[in-house]
Write a structure and sequence with these properties.
VTT_dom
Amino acid sequence: MDRLLEIILHTDDALLALVANNVYYAYVLLFFIIMLETGLIVFPFLPGDGLLFSAGVVAASTNLNIWVLLVILIIAAISGNLLNFITGKYFGGKLQRSDNYFLNKYLLKHLPKAQKFYDKHGGRAIIIGRFFPIIRTYIPFLAGMVYMERRLFLKNTVLGAILWISLFLLTGFFVGEITWVKNNYGLIFLSLIIITTLPLVFSLLLKKKSNSN
């Protein structure tokens, strides 16, 4: 848990230290972070886009193999979605009816946003949602709740995982050796977080404005 917290707060330094200590442990931990962020609704706060970019940057200058990492993290993203889909299918209704304060206030409150996103994009929401923090954690869960056809879900899950992981991981890898990127890594990491959360913040502001009217 301490290692996980360190990666969330100091991603680049923590990853470099982890790889230097045990590269195989790095593969395993990165796998579980990506799987849990997409696989359980209790982990929407885990880093996704920024972590993938960071892992790519680190792989460019260490013995962390980018192609092994690419395959491992795509499998993690697919596994996470499948776990979330199954959870939503078999336990979604019970969780929604739960009177647990924590579930309702901090977790299930995101479901209406995911529902709206799903209604707008249909099956493509599984792919598009990969690129939106929090949304990507809830869309598979919601797809399970509404009994989305398994084959359609699996197809979009695989395609979405390949696109999402490849984009951020390989971008980090190929620009990681650029001097400017090395010198401004913290700024880039923060910018990624801001950019990927802007659509969600914007939608919340619009909803608040419409409610006030």
